[in-house]
Design a protein that fits this description.
Strand order of the largest sheet: 1-3-4-2
Distance between the termini: 57 Å
Largest sheet: 4 strands, mixed
Order of helices and strands: HHHHHEEHHEEHH
Shape: rod-shaped
Helix content: 40-55%
Structural class: alpha+beta
Oligomer: single chain
C-alpha cells in the first residue's frame, strides 16, 4: 500500500491538470479504489460499444499506484518517483578464532554471574566434613585466596558452583577445588581485566 503523503502528492498534481483522464485518476485515488473495482466499473459493467480503453487504463494505473505496483511518474509524468527507502542491511564482522573463544568465555562468565548458566555446572550440595579432602581451609582463608567477600563465596556454595564442607555451623572449602573451579577462575579473570 502506498504512503498517504505520496497519494496526496499525486492528488494535488491531478487536481491541477483538470482534464478528463486526471479526473478519473483523481476519483480512484480519493476513494482508494482497487483494480478489480476499476475493471468492473470500466469493462464488465459497460456495454462493449461504450467502453473507453483510455479511461480504463488511466483508472487502472491509479489503482496500481495505490497498491504500490507502479510509481507516481506512471500517472503523473511531470513528477519523479521518490527514492525507495533502503532496507537496513546487517553488518558482518569477522573474528579470529582466539577472539571468538575469548568472547565466548566472557559471555559464559556474564551468564554464570547472572545465574543463567547454573544448569551447566553440576550443583554439588554441601558435604559432611568426613568426606572432605585433606587441604581444607576456613571461609575467611578461602575469601582471601579468591579475593572475594563472604557473601560471594556463600552464594556460590548455595548455588552449588563450589563445594562447601560442613562441620557444625562452620563451612570449609578445599584449596585445590577452589583453584580448579570455573567460577573462581572467571571471577579472578574478571578482576584482573578490570585492573
Amino acid at each position: 500500500m502506498r504512503k498517504q503523503s505520496e497519494i496526496n502528492r499525486a492528488i494535488e498534481h491531478l487536481k491541477a491538470c483538470n482534464d478528463n483522464v486526471s479526473r478519473i485518476q483523481l476519483e480512484v485515488l480519493e476513494t482508494k479504489r482497487s483494480e478489480s473495482w476499476v475493471f468492473n466499473r470500466y469493462v464488465r459493467d459497460v456495454p462493449e460499444d461504450e467502453r473507453n480503453e483510455t479511461l480504463f487504463y488511466a483508472a487502472r494505473d491509479a489503482a496500481q499506484f495505490l497498491a504500490g505496483k507502479i510509481g507516481i511518474s506512471s500517472i503523473c509524468p511531470d513528477l519523479e518517483d521518490e527514492p525507495e527507502e533502503e532496507e537496513e542491511q546487517e553488518e558482518t564482522i569477522t573474528l579470529s578464532l582466539s577472539e571468538y573463544k575469548k568472547l565466548l568465555r566472557r559471555l559464559e562468565r556474564v551468564e554464570r554471574r547472572l545465574g543463567l548458566r547454573v544448569g551447566d555446572v553440576a550443583p554439588v550440595p554441601r558435604k559432611d566434613i568426613s568426606e572432605a579432602p585433606d587441604d581444607l581451609i576456613g571461609q575467611a582463608d578461602a575469601c582471601r585466596l579468591i579475593g572475594c567477600g563472604k557473601t560471594t563465596i556463600k552464594r556460590w556454595a548455595n548455588k552449588g558452583l563450589i563445594t562447601g564442607y560442613q562441620k557444625g555451623r562452620s563451612v570449609y572449602y578445599s584449596r585445590r577445588e577452589l583453584i580448579g573451579s570455573p567460577v573462581v577462575k572467571d571471577y579472578k579473570d574478571s578482576k584482573s581485566n578490570k585492573e
